[in-house]
Amino acid sequence: MQVVLIEGDGIGPEVTAATCRVVAAAGVKIDWVRTPAGAEAAKTHGDPLPDETLEVIRRYRVALKGPCTTPVGKGFRSINVRLRQGLELFASVRPVTTLPGVMTPYDKVDLVVVRENTEGLYAGLEHEVVPGVVESVRLITRRAAERIVRFAFELARVRGRRVVTFCHKADVMRLSDGLFLECARAVADEFPFILFDEKPIDNVCLELAADPSRFDVLVMENLFGDLISDLCAGLVGGLGVVPGANLGERYAVFEAVHGSAPDIAGKGLANPIALVRSAAMLLEHVGHRAAAERIERAVVKTLQAGVGLTPDLGGSGTTTTITAELARHAAK
Ligand code: NAI
Predict the structure, then answer these.
(1) Could you give the C-alpha distances from 18 to 15, 112, 179, 270, 273, in angstroms and in order?
(2) Among 68, 115, 239, 313, which is best to mutate for testing ligand 1, by the most ligand atoms less than 8 A from CB?
(3) Closest C-alpha to 166, from 201, 193, 140
(4) What distance in Å separates the CA atoms of residue 73 and residue 62, rounded to the nearest whole number?
(5) How far apart are CA 197 and CA 150, in angstroms?
(6) Cα of 241 vs its chain's centroid, Å
(7) Least C-beta-crowded within 10 Å: which of 59, 82, 197, 200?
(8) What digits encode the pLDDT tens for the residues 180-221?
C-alpha cells in the first residue's frame, strides 16, 4: 500500500521516523511516498507547499503529515490552512481520551473534537483598510456549516456516541454564529436518536475544566476548534498524546494536534505517541483495523509500563527509547 509521508519541520522528522518504525512493527507493509512541505520546502522548492505535494496527495489520497512551521505575522500563509483548503479537508477529527499511566486531574475523558477546517477566521480574508486598521473576515457559509455538523452526527452514529454538542458564540457574533447555529439545529433534526446540545464556547471551556467526562462529541467552527483541541489535549496528558485526522470527501491527511515544537527539535525529546496514534487512525481509515488496534494497545502498554517515556510524560527517556517500547509492544 502506498501512503504519502510529509516529514514536516522541527520535531517532524523525528516523530515521523518513529511512527514509520511502529507501523512496520505492527506488521503493515507501507510504501511511504515522501513529499516535501514546510519551511524546508520553502527553501528547496520556493514554496512551503509545492504544487507537486498537493498533486502527490491527490494521486494517493491518504497522507501522514508531520507538523509544519508557520512564521508568526509575516512570510508565507500557513501551510496547514492551504493544505486543508486546497484538498477540501473540511473536517478535523481529534479523539481525546484518558490514557492509563498518564497522570492528570481527570479520568474517564472520552470525547471527540470535530472542527470545521476551511472557513471562519482561517479563511485568510484579511486586509489593511488604512495603515493601523486591519480587518479579518469570519466566513461562515450554510454549505460548510451543515456539512460539518452532519459529519459530526454521522461520526456519532457510526461510533455509537450519544450526544453532539454544538459550541458557538451566537449571542455576540449574531450573524455568523447565528447562521451556524441555525444550520446545526436543522441538521440535528435529521438525527432524532442522537441528543443535541448547544452551548456558548466560554461555558464549554468552563465545563471542560470542571469535568470533561461530561462531553461526548463537540462540533464547532475553525478557530474555536483550534483552541479547544489544545485545551482538551492538556486535559489528558498534553500535545504529545493526542492524534488527529483531516478528512474530506476525497482525501485524508492524518497529523497530530501538536506543532513543530522548535524548543525541543533535534534534541531527541519529542514524544511520538500523538503521531503514532494518528497513524493508527490512518490504518483504520484504509481498512487495517487489526493493526490500528495493535498500535493503540501498544501505546497503552508502553504508558502502563512507564519505561523509556519522554520528559513530557514525566519520564527521562528519549524519542528513541519510547519508540523502541512502542515498536516492541506493537510487534507482539
Ligand atoms: P507546539 O505544539 O509546536 O508546541 C507547544 C509546546 O508543546 C512546546 O513546549 C513543545 O515542546 C510541546 N510539544 C509539542 N509537541 C510535543 C511532542 N510531540 N512531544 C513533546 N512535547 C511537545 O506549538 P507552537 O510552539 O505554538 O508552534 C510551533 C510551530 O508549529 C508554529 O510555527 C506553528 O505554526 C506550528 N504548528 C503546526 C501545526 C501543524 O503542522 N499541524 C499545528 C500547530 C502548530
Answers:
(1) 5, 25, 43, 10, 9
(2) 239
(3) 201
(4) 30
(5) 14
(6) 11
(7) 59
(8) 999 999 999 999 999 999 999 999 999 999 999 999 999 999
